[in-house]
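1st attempt posting a full record on here, be nice pls
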Amino acid sequence: MGVGISAHEVEQAARRRSKTIDDGLEAERMREARTVRVLMLGLSGAGKSTLAKQVRMIHEKGFADKEKAVYREVVRQNVVMAVLCVLEEMDTHGVQFPTEEMRNTANNIKDRLKMSDSYKAVVDMRHSLLLLTSQKVVKDIMDACIDVETVQLNQYLFRSLDKILSDSYAPSDYDILRVRQKTTGLHEILFHFKGFEFRLCDVDGHCTVKKKWLQNFENVSAILFTAALSSYDVGSKDHEEQTEIHDAMRVFQTVTSYAGFIRSPIILFLNKKDIFQQKLKKVPLTVAFPEYTGKNEFSEACQFIQQKFESFVTHAPERLAVHITNATDTPNIRSVFDSSLAVILDQP
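the predicted structure (as C-alpha coordinates):
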Protein backbone atom coordinates (compact mmCIF):
# COMPACT_ATOMS: atom_id res chain seq x y z
CA MET A 1 0.00 0.00 0.00
CA GLY A 2 1.19 3.54 -0.71
CA VAL A 3 1.97 5.98 2.01
CA GLY A 4 -0.67 8.71 2.24
CA ILE A 5 0.15 12.43 2.33
CA SER A 6 -0.97 14.16 5.48
CA ALA A 7 -3.05 17.30 5.49
CA HIS A 8 -0.11 19.11 7.09
CA GLU A 9 2.20 18.19 4.19
CA VAL A 10 -0.40 19.29 1.66
CA GLU A 11 -0.72 22.62 3.45
CA GLN A 12 3.07 23.09 3.54
CA ALA A 13 3.36 22.35 -0.19
CA ALA A 14 0.61 24.86 -0.91
CA ARG A 15 2.38 27.49 1.19
CA ARG A 16 5.65 26.89 -0.67
CA ARG A 17 3.90 27.29 -4.02
CA SER A 18 2.19 30.44 -2.80
CA LYS A 19 5.48 31.88 -1.55
CA THR A 20 7.18 31.09 -4.85
CA ILE A 21 4.41 32.91 -6.71
CA ASP A 22 4.51 35.86 -4.29
CA ASP A 23 8.30 36.09 -4.57
CA GLY A 24 8.05 36.05 -8.35
CA LEU A 25 5.40 38.77 -8.35
CA GLU A 26 7.45 40.90 -5.96
CA ALA A 27 10.57 40.49 -8.09
CA GLU A 28 8.56 41.47 -11.17
CA ARG A 29 7.11 44.48 -9.32
CA MET A 30 10.58 45.62 -8.27
CA ARG A 31 11.95 45.11 -11.78
CA GLU A 32 9.01 47.03 -13.25
CA ALA A 33 9.61 49.85 -10.75
CA ARG A 34 13.14 50.22 -12.12
CA THR A 35 12.09 50.05 -15.77
CA VAL A 36 11.81 53.28 -17.75
CA ARG A 37 9.99 53.22 -21.08
CA VAL A 38 10.68 55.99 -23.57
CA LEU A 39 8.75 56.38 -26.81
CA MET A 40 10.89 57.66 -29.70
CA LEU A 41 8.92 59.51 -32.36
CA GLY A 42 9.71 61.65 -35.38
CA LEU A 43 9.19 61.79 -39.11
CA SER A 44 11.26 59.73 -41.50
CA GLY A 45 14.51 61.53 -42.26
CA ALA A 46 14.66 63.41 -38.96
CA GLY A 47 17.70 61.43 -37.78
CA LYS A 48 15.88 59.24 -35.27
CA SER A 49 17.50 56.04 -36.54
CA THR A 50 20.93 57.67 -36.27
CA LEU A 51 20.10 58.62 -32.71
CA ALA A 52 19.10 55.01 -31.99
CA LYS A 53 22.48 53.86 -33.35
CA GLN A 54 24.21 56.36 -31.06
CA VAL A 55 22.35 54.95 -28.06
CA ARG A 56 23.63 51.48 -28.91
CA MET A 57 27.19 52.76 -29.25
CA ILE A 58 27.08 54.78 -26.03
CA HIS A 59 25.11 52.50 -23.73
CA GLU A 60 25.53 49.06 -25.29
CA LYS A 61 28.49 47.34 -26.90
CA GLY A 62 27.99 48.83 -30.32
CA PHE A 63 27.61 46.54 -33.31
CA ALA A 64 28.55 42.87 -33.51
CA ASP A 65 30.67 41.53 -36.38
CA LYS A 66 27.59 39.97 -38.01
CA GLU A 67 25.84 43.34 -37.99
CA LYS A 68 28.90 45.05 -39.42
CA ALA A 69 28.91 42.53 -42.26
CA VAL A 70 25.34 43.59 -43.06
CA TYR A 71 26.25 47.27 -42.80
CA ARG A 72 29.14 46.73 -45.21
CA GLU A 73 26.57 46.06 -47.93
CA VAL A 74 24.43 48.99 -46.73
CA VAL A 75 27.42 51.34 -47.04
CA ARG A 76 28.18 50.05 -50.52
CA GLN A 77 24.55 50.46 -51.53
CA ASN A 78 24.83 54.07 -50.34
CA VAL A 79 27.81 54.42 -52.69
CA VAL A 80 25.63 53.17 -55.55
CA MET A 81 22.95 55.75 -54.73
CA ALA A 82 25.55 58.51 -54.38
CA VAL A 83 27.13 57.85 -57.78
CA LEU A 84 23.75 57.56 -59.53
CA CYS A 85 22.59 60.75 -57.79
CA VAL A 86 25.58 62.71 -59.12
CA LEU A 87 25.25 61.32 -62.66
CA GLU A 88 21.51 62.08 -62.74
CA GLU A 89 22.18 65.59 -61.44
CA MET A 90 24.67 66.09 -64.28
CA ASP A 91 22.08 64.90 -66.82
CA THR A 92 19.46 67.24 -65.36
CA HIS A 93 21.74 70.26 -65.78
CA GLY A 94 23.19 69.18 -69.11
CA VAL A 95 26.70 68.83 -67.68
CA GLN A 96 29.08 66.38 -69.36
CA PHE A 97 32.49 64.93 -68.67
CA PRO A 98 35.21 66.67 -70.72
CA THR A 99 36.44 63.58 -72.62
CA GLU A 100 34.63 60.94 -74.66
CA GLU A 101 36.47 58.20 -72.77
CA MET A 102 35.17 59.51 -69.44
CA ARG A 103 31.65 59.89 -70.84
CA ASN A 104 31.69 56.24 -71.96
CA THR A 105 33.00 55.17 -68.56
CA ALA A 106 30.21 57.10 -66.84
CA ASN A 107 27.55 55.51 -69.07
CA ASN A 108 28.90 52.01 -68.38
CA ILE A 109 28.92 52.71 -64.64
CA LYS A 110 25.37 54.04 -64.74
CA ASP A 111 24.05 51.00 -66.63
CA ARG A 112 25.77 48.54 -64.28
CA LEU A 113 24.74 50.30 -61.09
CA LYS A 114 21.08 50.21 -62.05
CA MET A 115 21.09 46.40 -61.79
CA SER A 116 19.73 44.67 -58.69
CA ASP A 117 23.12 43.41 -57.47
CA SER A 118 24.83 46.77 -57.93
CA TYR A 119 26.16 46.83 -54.35
CA LYS A 120 28.34 43.86 -55.35
CA ALA A 121 29.38 45.40 -58.65
CA VAL A 122 30.93 48.46 -57.05
CA VAL A 123 33.83 46.37 -55.74
CA ASP A 124 34.66 45.12 -59.25
CA MET A 125 34.33 48.68 -60.59
CA ARG A 126 36.61 50.14 -57.95
CA HIS A 127 39.15 51.67 -60.35
CA SER A 128 36.47 53.22 -62.60
CA LEU A 129 34.57 54.66 -59.65
CA LEU A 130 37.69 56.16 -58.11
CA LEU A 131 38.47 57.77 -61.46
CA LEU A 132 34.93 59.09 -61.90
CA THR A 133 34.56 60.55 -58.41
CA SER A 134 37.92 62.32 -58.68
CA GLN A 135 36.77 64.37 -61.69
CA LYS A 136 36.49 68.13 -61.16
CA VAL A 137 33.06 68.20 -62.81
CA VAL A 138 31.74 65.83 -60.12
CA LYS A 139 33.01 68.11 -57.36
CA ASP A 140 31.51 71.14 -59.13
CA ILE A 141 28.06 69.57 -59.51
CA MET A 142 28.00 68.66 -55.81
CA ASP A 143 29.08 72.16 -54.78
CA ALA A 144 26.19 73.60 -56.79
CA CYS A 145 23.59 71.24 -55.31
CA ILE A 146 21.11 72.76 -52.83
CA ASP A 147 20.52 69.44 -51.04
CA VAL A 148 23.24 69.97 -48.43
CA GLU A 149 22.53 66.73 -46.57
CA THR A 150 22.90 64.53 -49.65
CA VAL A 151 26.04 66.41 -50.71
CA GLN A 152 27.64 65.93 -47.28
CA LEU A 153 26.95 62.19 -47.33
CA ASN A 154 28.17 61.80 -50.92
CA GLN A 155 31.36 63.72 -50.19
CA TYR A 156 32.00 61.52 -47.16
CA LEU A 157 31.48 58.35 -49.20
CA PHE A 158 33.66 59.53 -52.07
CA ARG A 159 36.49 60.50 -49.70
CA SER A 160 36.33 57.01 -48.18
CA LEU A 161 35.72 55.19 -51.45
CA ASP A 162 39.06 53.38 -51.69
CA LYS A 163 38.58 51.98 -48.19
CA ILE A 164 34.90 51.10 -48.70
CA LEU A 165 35.55 49.15 -51.90
CA SER A 166 38.50 47.17 -50.56
CA ASP A 167 38.04 43.42 -49.99
CA SER A 168 38.93 43.74 -46.31
CA TYR A 169 36.53 46.61 -45.61
CA ALA A 170 34.72 46.53 -42.25
CA PRO A 171 32.60 49.62 -41.54
CA SER A 172 33.58 51.81 -38.62
CA ASP A 173 31.02 53.03 -36.11
CA TYR A 174 31.08 56.40 -37.84
CA ASP A 175 30.43 54.77 -41.23
CA ILE A 176 27.38 53.08 -39.73
CA LEU A 177 26.18 56.38 -38.26
CA ARG A 178 26.51 58.25 -41.54
CA VAL A 179 24.80 55.90 -43.99
CA ARG A 180 21.12 55.95 -44.80
CA GLN A 181 19.02 52.87 -44.24
CA LYS A 182 15.27 52.46 -44.41
CA THR A 183 13.74 51.20 -41.17
CA THR A 184 10.24 49.83 -40.79
CA GLY A 185 8.04 48.78 -37.92
CA LEU A 186 8.88 49.08 -34.26
CA HIS A 187 12.24 48.42 -32.60
CA GLU A 188 13.11 48.27 -28.91
CA ILE A 189 16.53 49.18 -27.54
CA LEU A 190 17.40 47.98 -24.03
CA PHE A 191 20.20 49.45 -21.90
CA HIS A 192 20.98 50.35 -18.29
CA PHE A 193 21.59 53.80 -16.85
CA LYS A 194 22.11 54.66 -13.16
CA GLY A 195 20.69 51.31 -12.04
CA PHE A 196 17.54 51.55 -14.18
CA GLU A 197 16.60 49.50 -17.21
CA PHE A 198 15.66 51.77 -20.09
CA ARG A 199 13.51 50.51 -22.94
CA LEU A 200 13.51 52.82 -25.95
CA CYS A 201 10.67 52.08 -28.33
CA ASP A 202 11.70 53.38 -31.77
CA VAL A 203 8.63 53.78 -33.98
CA ASP A 204 8.96 53.84 -37.77
CA GLY A 205 8.83 57.44 -38.99
CA HIS A 206 6.54 56.41 -41.86
CA CYS A 207 3.80 55.44 -39.41
CA THR A 208 0.82 57.77 -39.26
CA VAL A 209 0.46 59.09 -35.73
CA LYS A 210 -3.18 58.94 -34.65
CA LYS A 211 -4.68 59.26 -31.20
CA LYS A 212 -6.20 55.78 -31.45
CA TRP A 213 -2.74 54.38 -32.32
CA LEU A 214 -1.11 56.25 -29.42
CA GLN A 215 -3.26 54.31 -26.91
CA ASN A 216 -0.81 51.41 -27.26
CA PHE A 217 1.92 53.49 -25.59
CA GLU A 218 0.15 55.16 -22.69
CA ASN A 219 2.41 53.52 -20.10
CA VAL A 220 5.59 55.25 -21.30
CA SER A 221 7.67 57.31 -18.90
CA ALA A 222 8.63 59.98 -21.45
CA ILE A 223 8.42 61.02 -25.11
CA LEU A 224 11.56 61.66 -27.15
CA PHE A 225 10.61 63.51 -30.32
CA THR A 226 13.12 64.22 -33.09
CA ALA A 227 12.55 66.86 -35.77
CA ALA A 228 14.97 67.96 -38.48
CA LEU A 229 15.68 71.70 -38.49
CA SER A 230 17.01 71.26 -42.01
CA SER A 231 13.65 70.05 -43.36
CA TYR A 232 12.30 73.61 -43.59
CA ASP A 233 12.82 73.69 -47.37
CA VAL A 234 11.78 70.08 -48.16
CA GLY A 235 8.32 69.95 -49.69
CA SER A 236 5.60 68.15 -47.74
CA LYS A 237 4.32 64.96 -49.37
CA ASP A 238 0.83 65.50 -47.96
CA HIS A 239 0.29 69.27 -47.88
CA GLU A 240 0.95 71.51 -50.86
CA GLU A 241 2.73 74.80 -50.25
CA GLN A 242 4.09 73.51 -46.94
CA THR A 243 7.30 71.73 -45.96
CA GLU A 244 8.28 68.74 -43.88
CA ILE A 245 8.96 70.86 -40.82
CA HIS A 246 5.27 71.80 -40.84
CA ASP A 247 4.46 68.07 -40.95
CA ALA A 248 6.75 67.52 -37.96
CA MET A 249 4.99 70.29 -36.05
CA ARG A 250 1.58 68.75 -36.75
CA VAL A 251 2.71 65.36 -35.47
CA PHE A 252 4.36 66.98 -32.46
CA GLN A 253 1.14 68.81 -31.62
CA THR A 254 -0.87 65.57 -31.91
CA VAL A 255 1.51 63.75 -29.58
CA THR A 256 1.90 66.47 -26.96
CA SER A 257 -1.84 67.17 -26.74
CA TYR A 258 -2.81 63.50 -26.40
CA ALA A 259 -4.53 62.91 -23.05
CA GLY A 260 -2.49 59.77 -22.34
CA PHE A 261 0.75 61.78 -22.44
CA ILE A 262 -0.51 64.92 -20.72
CA ARG A 263 1.86 64.46 -17.76
CA SER A 264 4.73 62.76 -19.59
CA PRO A 265 8.07 64.57 -19.87
CA ILE A 266 8.81 65.53 -23.47
CA ILE A 267 12.35 65.67 -24.81
CA LEU A 268 12.53 67.49 -28.15
CA PHE A 269 15.65 67.06 -30.27
CA LEU A 270 15.81 69.70 -32.99
CA ASN A 271 18.28 67.78 -35.07
CA LYS A 272 20.61 68.28 -38.04
CA LYS A 273 21.82 71.66 -36.82
CA ASP A 274 24.95 71.41 -38.97
CA ILE A 275 22.95 70.95 -42.18
CA PHE A 276 20.50 73.67 -41.12
CA GLN A 277 23.37 76.10 -40.66
CA GLN A 278 24.72 75.34 -44.13
CA LYS A 279 21.29 75.54 -45.79
CA LEU A 280 20.58 78.98 -44.36
CA LYS A 281 23.45 80.31 -46.48
CA LYS A 282 21.55 79.32 -49.63
CA VAL A 283 17.85 79.08 -48.71
CA PRO A 284 16.07 81.71 -46.55
CA LEU A 285 13.85 80.52 -43.70
CA THR A 286 10.99 82.52 -45.21
CA VAL A 287 10.43 79.76 -47.80
CA ALA A 288 8.69 77.90 -44.96
CA PHE A 289 7.74 80.78 -42.68
CA PRO A 290 6.90 83.98 -44.62
CA GLU A 291 6.14 85.68 -41.30
CA TYR A 292 9.76 85.34 -40.18
CA THR A 293 11.42 88.77 -40.03
CA GLY A 294 14.71 87.89 -38.37
CA LYS A 295 18.15 87.46 -39.85
CA ASN A 296 18.93 84.42 -41.96
CA GLU A 297 21.51 83.19 -39.47
CA PHE A 298 21.63 80.12 -37.26
CA SER A 299 20.91 81.35 -33.72
CA GLU A 300 17.96 83.59 -34.56
CA ALA A 301 16.40 81.18 -37.07
CA CYS A 302 16.84 78.27 -34.67
CA GLN A 303 15.19 80.19 -31.83
CA PHE A 304 12.23 81.02 -34.09
CA ILE A 305 11.63 77.33 -34.93
CA GLN A 306 12.10 76.28 -31.31
CA GLN A 307 9.45 78.77 -30.19
CA LYS A 308 7.07 77.38 -32.82
CA PHE A 309 7.41 73.89 -31.34
CA GLU A 310 7.18 75.17 -27.76
CA SER A 311 3.87 76.89 -28.53
CA PHE A 312 2.20 73.49 -29.01
CA VAL A 313 2.87 72.39 -25.41
CA THR A 314 0.04 74.27 -23.72
CA HIS A 315 -0.43 71.96 -20.73
CA ALA A 316 2.43 72.02 -18.20
CA PRO A 317 4.99 73.54 -20.60
CA GLU A 318 7.70 73.00 -17.98
CA ARG A 319 7.70 69.29 -18.88
CA LEU A 320 9.29 70.13 -22.25
CA ALA A 321 13.08 70.13 -22.66
CA VAL A 322 14.54 71.20 -26.01
CA HIS A 323 18.00 70.35 -27.32
CA ILE A 324 19.67 71.45 -30.56
CA THR A 325 21.51 68.40 -31.86
CA ASN A 326 23.62 66.78 -34.53
CA ALA A 327 22.86 63.05 -34.36
CA THR A 328 26.18 62.06 -35.97
CA ASP A 329 28.18 63.94 -33.31
CA THR A 330 28.75 61.31 -30.60
CA PRO A 331 30.07 63.65 -27.84
CA ASN A 332 27.12 66.00 -28.41
CA ILE A 333 24.57 63.17 -28.27
CA ARG A 334 26.23 61.52 -25.27
CA SER A 335 25.99 64.75 -23.26
CA VAL A 336 22.48 65.70 -24.35
CA PHE A 337 21.03 62.20 -24.17
CA ASP A 338 22.41 61.36 -20.74
CA SER A 339 21.21 64.68 -19.32
CA SER A 340 17.77 63.91 -20.78
CA LEU A 341 17.73 60.49 -19.11
CA ALA A 342 18.65 62.10 -15.79
CA VAL A 343 15.72 64.53 -16.18
CA ILE A 344 13.36 61.62 -16.80
CA LEU A 345 14.58 59.84 -13.66
CA ASP A 346 14.05 63.00 -11.60
CA GLN A 347 10.35 63.05 -12.44
CA PRO A 348 8.05 62.17 -9.50
